Every structure is written in C-alpha cells, then in structure tokens.
Structure of Translin-associated protein X:
Amino acid sequence: MHRVSAGRRNRRTDQRPTRRKENEADVDEDSPVIKLFRGYQHQLDRKHDKYERIVKLSRDITIESKRIIFLLHRMSGETTDMILKDAEDKLKELREEKWRQVAEELQTEDHHQYLRAYTAGLQEYIEAISFWQFLKEKTLISVAEVEEGLQFIRSSEIKEESTTTTTDDPTVAPPVESMVSTENDADKSNAPESQPVKTDLMHVLVPPTHYLLGIADLTGELMRMAIHSIGQGDFDLPFEHCKFLRIIYDAFVSFGNVDRELSRKVHVLRQSLQKVETACYTLQVRGSEIPKHMLAEAFSKSTADDLLSEEAPSGSNVGY
C-alpha cells in the first residue's frame, strides 16, 4: 500500500510542471490585464535601476566628501589659503560631476521616493561643505545655501518643424517664401544659425532633518581639529571651537520629538563638546603649571587614541 501511494504521489509531482507550462501557454499576451501588468513590471524595473544608480553616485559622493574633510584637517599656518582653495575646487567639481547626475536622475521623479538612496552622501557632503565654510568664514552654512548649491540648469535646443510644403509637379509654382529663401541662401549660409534654447532648472531635495544630521557630524570634525591644534602648539583654536560647539549644542537640545538617529548624534555631539571643554579647562587651569610642549605631547597622544577608538565602529552612517 505504501508503494502504491508513493507511486501516485510521484506521478502527481511529475505532472505539475507540465500543467504549469500548459497554463503559461494559455496566457493571452494581448489581454488588456496582461498588458497592464507588463507596464507595471517595466515601471518597477526602471525605478529599481534608477535607485541603484543613485546609490552608486551617493557612495562616490561620500568617498569624495571624506577626502575633502581629510584635506581640511591638514591645514596649518602657511598652507591654510592653499588648502582652502583646493577644497573649494574639489567641492565645485563634486557638485558638477556627481550631484548634477543625481539631479538629472531625479528631474521627473518624486525626490522623497529616492531620498534614502542618497541621504548618506548628502549628509557627508553637508559635513564637508559646512566644515570648509566654517574654517574659511567662521560661519555656519544654512540649509538654503546648501539647496542653492545643488541647483543646476540644463539647456536643450528646441527643434522647429518646417511648415513649408514642397511638390515635385513642375506645373505648380513654388511658394514665395521658398523663392525668397533661395535668393538669400548665400547670405544665410554665412550667418550663424540660432535656434531657440529651452532651460530646465534641476535640483536635489535637502530636507531640514538631513541637514541637521550633517551639521551634527560637523561637530565631530571641529572637536578633532581643536584637540589636534593643541598638539601643534595652537592654544587659541580650542576656545574658539568650544564657543561654537556650545551654540550648536544648545540649539540641538532645544529640539523636541526628534528621531532615533538625530538623538544618537546629539549624544555624540555632547561627548565631543565635553572633550573640547576638558581640553580648554586643562589649558586654562594647568597651563601655567605644565610646560606647553608637555601639554602638546599629551594631547597629541590622546587625540591618536581617540581616533583609533572611533574608527573601529565607523561606517554606521553609510547604510545602504
């Protein structure tokens, strides 16, 4: 009995693929419903491909923004102006090469559907450009300035269709316009042709919450530069950065109903502020007791230890 039932089950499973093929063969490709779902499939494939392209661009933006930040950390003394100019050129190149492509991808799309695809690159870019502007002008870049920098103009020529009709009948006289045009062909051939140009404004959406996330990351770079400057013998920069960090921290604390990611970054911001305040306290209170070269060596060692401890769990904000 068991053999017979097993044989029956095997025959049933053997017949399933053939039945499935028969059902697929019975599908009418000309059916309106099938055509409708084929269109949905095409739309979803197109959106998924565009999403992946934007993700790749965001990764490139993240990498290049990190390089700009590392470049700005190498500022010292006589090389300040040269490094600031070099960083400015790299930011312009990043906008024209990468962000323009993102804007072209999003030109006819709902930006909110693709926001998660480029949010990591946007936050890293805001961190880099705000870091550059603070070092150059001692001001904080606004969300309006970031949005203005991510606006692009695309020009395209408008092709005009000819309204004149031609005929091969020799008995029919050509239009007057064509007769006049043939007489002036020599003059027109020498004159440059001017076609109407259509300009389209493209932009990349910069939500205020993502702007705040980028500014929160900026505070970590200011903390690193402040501690590193002590090791280089600059004891005034930590106090300048400490005042700025306090202003930013007070503004962030005043926010209510923040999401989990912003709350986590505010916690990191508080830790960065505490490190700078501790450094300023040490300089102010014990600066007269300890020689400056010993303070510089102690802070340079602590900076290296902090960087090693922070690089271990890094990469949490590049969540694709």
The radius of gyration is 32 Å. The beta strands are 151-157, 197-203. Residues 106 and 204 are 7 Å apart (CA to CA).
